[in-house]
C-alpha cells in the first residue's frame, strides 16, 4: 500500500493503481470521455486532468494514465484544473458540437460558449471504439490512421473488415454517437437546459478548490 494526499486528505492506495482509480474509490468525481472500465487507459480526452504539487512547481496530468505513487499531493478540483477542463470542453464542442454527452459535460462545468472554429465532426478520436474492438471483441477490425489533423479512425483501405462481427460495440461506447440536441450553430451549441448548479465556492477570493463534491452542488449558500 502507498500513502498519498488527495484534496487535503491522507489516503491509501494499492500499488499499480492510477490516480483516476484512487479518486473514484474515495468518491471524488472526475469526468472522462476516453476511459471505460475493462479497457486499457489511453489519456486522449484530457478531461480527467488533476494537479500535482502546489505553488509554482505544480503540473497537470491525466489521472487515467498517471500512477499513484508514495507521497504524491493531488488536487482534483483546483481553479487551474477547472479552467483546463473548461478549455478542453470548448475544444471538444468545436470538434463535435452535436454530441449530447459532450454538451451535458459542458453544461455541468459551466461552459456557456465555445470560442473556436466549428468543425461539425462526428469523432473526437477518444479511441474507445478501437480499444473495444481489439480488447473486448478481439476483432481489431478498426484502428487509427494518419497523423496530426489528418488522423482518423476507420477500416483498412476503407473496406469492411472480415474480422468485423457487426456487434455494434464500437457504436455503444462512442460518446459522439449519442442522441443529439437540436442546436448546432456556435452561439447556441450549449443549450444549458440540463445544467446542474455550478459550485458557487470557486472564484471566491478565499477558495481555490471546490469545498464539496456534491452533484449538484447545493450544500452551501455562497453566491
Order the strands across the largest sheet as they lie in space.
2-1-5-3-4
- Number of helices, where a helix is a run of at least 4 consecutive DSSP H or I residues: 5
Instruction: Return the CATH class of the largest domain.
Output: Alpha Beta
Q: Classify the beta-strand content into a percent band.
A: 5-15%
> What is the second-level CATH architecture of the largest domain?
Roll
Topology as H/E string?
EEHEEEHHHEEH
- Overall outline: globular
Mean pLDDT: 84
Q: Separation of termini?
A: 41 Å
Query: Biggest sheet, open or closed, and with what strands and sense?
Result: 5 strands, mixed
Domains, number: 2
CATH topology of the largest domain: Ubiquitin-like (UB roll)
Protein structure class: alpha+beta
Count of extended strands: 7
Any idea what the radius of gyration is?
A: 19 Å
> What share of residues is helical?
10-25%
Low-confidence stretches: 179-183
Topology record:
Blueprint: E1 2-6, E2 9-13, H1 19-25, E3 49-52, E4 59-62, E5 73-75, H2 79-95, H3 100-108, H4 128-136, E6 143-145, E7 152-154, H5 169-173
Parallel strand pairs: 1-5
Antiparallel strand pairs: 1-2, 3-4, 3-5, 6-7
Helix pairs in contact: 2-3
Amino acid at each position: 500500500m502507498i500513502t498519498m494526499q488527495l484534496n487535503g486528505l491522507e489516503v491509501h492506495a494499492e500499488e499499480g493503481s492510477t490516480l483516476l482509480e484512487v479518486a473514484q474509490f474515495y468518491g471524488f468525481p472526475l469526468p472522462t470521455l476516453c476511459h471505460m472500465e475493462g479497457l486499457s487507459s489511453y489519456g486522449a480526452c484530457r478531461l480527467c486532468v488533476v494537479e500535482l504539487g502546489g505553488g509554482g512547481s505544480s503540473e497537470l496530468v491525466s489521472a487515467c494514465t498517471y500512477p499513484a505513487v508514495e507521497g504524491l499531493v493531488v488536487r482534483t478540483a483546483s481553479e487551474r484544473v477547472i479552467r483546463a477542463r473548461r478549455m478542453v470542453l470548448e475544444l471538444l464542442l468545436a470538434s463535435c458540437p452535436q454530441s449530447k454527452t459532450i454538451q451535458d459535460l459542458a453544461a455541468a462545468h459551466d461552459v456557456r460558449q465555445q470560442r473556436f472554429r466549428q468543425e461539425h465532426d462526428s469523432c473526437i478520436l477518444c479511441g474507445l471504439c478501437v480499444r473495444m474492438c481489439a480488447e473486448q471483441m478481439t476483432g481489431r477490425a478498426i484502428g487509427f490512421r494518419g497523423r496530426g489533423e489528418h488522423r482518423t479512425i476507420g477500416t483498412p483501405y476503407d473496406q469492411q473488415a472480415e474480422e468485423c462481427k457487426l456487434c455494434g460495440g464500437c457504436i455503444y461506447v462512442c460518446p459522439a454517437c449519442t442522441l443529439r440536441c437540436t442546436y448546432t450553430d456556435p452561439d447556441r451549441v450549449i443549450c444549458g437546459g440540463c445544467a446542474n448548479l455550478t459550485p458557487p465556492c470557486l472564484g471566491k477570493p478565499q477558495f481555490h478548490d471546490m469545498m464539496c463534491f456534491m452533484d449538484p452542488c447545493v450544500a452551501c449558500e455562497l453566491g
